[in-house]
UniProtKB/TrEMBL annotation:
Enzyme class: transferase
Name this polypeptide is given: Hydroxymethylbilane synthase
Residues covered by the Porphobilinogen deaminase C-terminal domain: 220-285
Organism: Algibacter mikhailovii
Function as written in the Swiss-Prot or TrEMBL entry: Tetrapolymerization of the monopyrrole PBG into the hydroxymethylbilane pre-uroporphyrinogen in several discrete steps.
Alphabetical keyword list: Porphyrin biosynthesis, Transferase
One GO term (biological process): heme biosynthetic process
A single GO molecular function term of this UniProt record: hydroxymethylbilane synthase activity
EC number(s) stated in the UniProt entry for this protein: 2.5.1.61
Subunit organization: Monomer.
Catalytic activity line of the entry: 4 porphobilinogen + H2O = hydroxymethylbilane + 4 NH4(+)
Occurrences of domain Tetrapyrrole biosynthesis uroporphyrinogen III synthase (ranges): 337-516
Amino acid sequence: MSKTLRIGTRDSELALWQANIVKKLLEDAGHKTELVPVKSTGDLVLDKPLYELGITGIFTRTLDIAMLNHDIDIAVHSLKDVPTVLPKGIVQAAVLKRGNVNDTLVFKDNEEFLGAKHAVIATGSLRRRAQWLNRFPTHTITDLRGNVNSRLQKLQDNVWNGAIFAAAGIGRIGIRPEEAINLDWMIPAPAQGAIMITALEDDDFAKEACAALNHEETEICTTIEREFLNKLEGGCTAPIGALAYIKDEEVNFKGVLLSEDGSKRIDVTRVKKLGEHNDMAQYCADFVIERGGKRLMDKIKYSNKKTNVFSTKSFTDDQRLLFHEKVVPESSDFIKISLNRIHPRFLRNEIQNVVITSKNAVEALTANFSATELQFKNIYCVGRRTKRLVENKIGKVAHTEKNAQKLAEYLVEFIEGTEVTYFCSDIRLDALPTVLSENNIKVNEVEAYQTKYDSYKVADSVESAMFYSPSTVESFVKNNTIDVIAFCIGETTAKEAKKHFKDVRIAKVPTVESVIELVNEHYV
């Protein structure tokens, strides 16, 4: 039986429309599918402008985390909402043929206000705001949030002259009013009008299924636009527009960067033969930067933001991308690991029962010995990531549990024999050896690595901290006495955190990404 592809999507009308298009195309190709609607941060927070929330990724991060946690197989996005750098392990699987790229002005009564000195226009987009003010500097821009239907209703309910929408959005769900005109002078958001599908990098089945839906011309154009955005280091917190299209075997490009108030504007255009366009985005970004673009970007990017979340483990670039704009994180490794030399006498004979509770112990073992030297009959471990590493580098795991306490309880019931060898740190919890010893199971402890505290005093603005082991909690409190909200990777870490903090929260699954999701939920 073929695999059912779980299609992750936001639950707005437009998002569901897009997801259903993908669903139909996949089913027409013979695949079984299932829609999995997921509420995103962007849909839940409607009282702030998109550019204050950081629109890049705001509608995709929840789906990214769902995919990394294997809750969905593919995700359907409006490509303009997707960060230019995808999280590690997630790839672009397909881009559908592009729809209308334009922005559309929906107005009341008539268009006479366009020639008036004063008018009120509604939009939540910084790019649209800046381009409108550049063209109509005496007009007033008011914020507009919500789904397409609610924004149209707000236009009717308020004393505004008009509101700006993506033409593709109101067109796809069939609610474009007669009182609407396309703004062909307004350069759209990079990849506007395009639908994109993401999948896990190692999911060949999903990638192959989606590859048949890819539209090459749209992929070429949107890739150039998004690369231009990336080279300028801008997200939706910057007023950047870009549009590429192919005509007569030539790639035509136009891009723009503006100040937030629209008073400053830098434009670039470029035409290259199809096939010779690979450096187009870089050239255009450099052109903008050299003409004052860097100063504009720095002014926009480096506003006065104070760190409010501290992580006791350093983030990768991909993990940092998962935070939304209300989170201003700082990270540092508050524990340092030093691998020990493990004497060969411990491995002279095959060991019947081995306990491994961390990836550091795996690294220590594989640093000291080859895979053929690590002859273990039964391997028991804590955590699915530790299990994955053990099975990649040493051998099959007999059993795994979420924490050391539960593993000890399992071993008391089901262990073969009455002895275990426990590869651990010089700093380790007492739960496992205590429970085993109390039940007449001998524990041979081998110090595989050392854990050293390496903390410092964090900024006074820090309101919460992220912890990944009891040791990270202990290291943090050595130099910090503030009562932060403690976001913990699991129950064992939370148990230690509760000794020091009043508000302790535990991630749904023991991954860094899930701790990040917990932080995002708090800072909505």
